[in-house]
Design brief:
It is a single chain. By secondary structure, the chain is mainly beta. The protein has helices spanning 6-9, 122-130, and strands at 18-25, 28-35, 43-45, 49-57, 60-64, 67-71, 76-79, 86-89, 94-102, 108-111. The strands form 3 sheets. A 5-stranded antiparallel beta sheet has the order 1-2-9-4-7. Strands 6-5-8 form a 3-stranded antiparallel beta sheet, with no helix packed on it. The chain is globular.
Length: 135
């Protein structure tokens, strides 16, 4: 058994969101993701893992090619393997609890419009040439 106090595990950074892996079990891991106001994730996917976010506090918007979903305390979002997604944090600090499970936790990043220094890896560019909107 693993047990955590999410409030005690939170860690924020005004420069970028913080993802802290709390533990690993079998084919997955559990994480806290801490977001300062206005922070945005890269537009990315996990080809071999399902990703689930539960909003503990704060909130924002989860974007996918098929639409946007409001994320608020008590809500959760499930991204199946290969679903392209991006999280945009709202005006408050946000604490998300994340569970990932699957064959591996690798990430493919398509772009990151809010990060001017972002450069996609060549393997990610090649992946998105074949799969522009994910798997």
């Amino acid at each position: 058994m693993l047990a955590f106090d999410l409030s005690a595990e939170q860690a924020f950074n005004p420069e970028h969101h913080v993802e802290k892996i709390l533990g690993k079990i079998g084919e997955g891991d559990v994480t806290v993701a801490c977001w300062d106001p206005g922070q945005v994730s890269p537009n990315h996917l996990h080809p071999n893992a399902t990703e689930i976010y539960f909003c503990f506090s704060g909130g924002g918007t989860m974007r996918t090619p098929t639409g946007d979903v409001a994320v608020k305390p008590g809500s959760f979002v499930v991204h199946p393997r290969g679903e392209l997604h991006e999280y945009v944090n709202g005006p408050e600090r946000t604490l998300l609890f994340r569970v990932r499970y699957g064959d591996d936790m690798s990430t493919r990043s398509k772009d990151w419009p809010t990060n001017k220094t972002f450069q996609a890896k060549p393997a990610d560019d090649a992946f998105f040439l074949d799969h522009p909107n994910g798997l």
